[in-house]
Specification:
There is one protein chain. The protein has about 220 residues and is an all-alpha fold. The chain is built from eleven helices and no strands.
Amino acid sequence: MTKREQYIRITIFLLILGLFSLLLWYIGRPMLRFVSEPERFQLWMRERGFWGVAALVVMHMLQVFAAVIPSGPLSMAAGYAFGPFLGTVICVLADTAAAILLVLLVRRFGPKVLRLLTGKDPEQYRLFRKQRGLGWLLLFLFLIPGTPKDVMTYAVGMADLSLWAWLGINLVGRIPGVALSAYGGSSLSRGQLGWLIGICAFCAALYPLGMLLYKRYTKTQ
């Protein structure tokens, strides 16, 4: 990576982080203020209408582009604010939109987009390029909480996979992990700490399995 590319990458990352921080401040302040009164925070979010939902959507999309930002807390915040069902719908649609946009950018502008976003050699993301049954494999990996879905999104930009297949994989495959996090956030809003601890423990147990399966697959590429 040239120095110019490094400067551009740093600028992009800082812009993403800055916008994410502004949105986090917009939602996080009232959430902390009403942490002992979740119904007041939910009322606050409902009063914002479109803008409250839009803030969560944009934060989720930014998270996909800057994979260092964890998605779990955002899904929990959505469940806390809107309940498990609507929170899951909002997050899955946002993640899917970002995944489609990222693949389109890579296919339009080529490997340099991956280099700018990740700082890595684009050749590392060709792991799915010649894989038979790629769609079914990706769906299987996406259904397991803990697999690096954002990394796989970068890889798909280099793969021969239709956008319709990619759309379906995201809409279906992201549901289990997002739903668990959203339900955890909803449980927190209802004071059901036992459910929240149980969900967190379950996700923590699945994470190593997801990473093991992902690494086992990528080693064969």
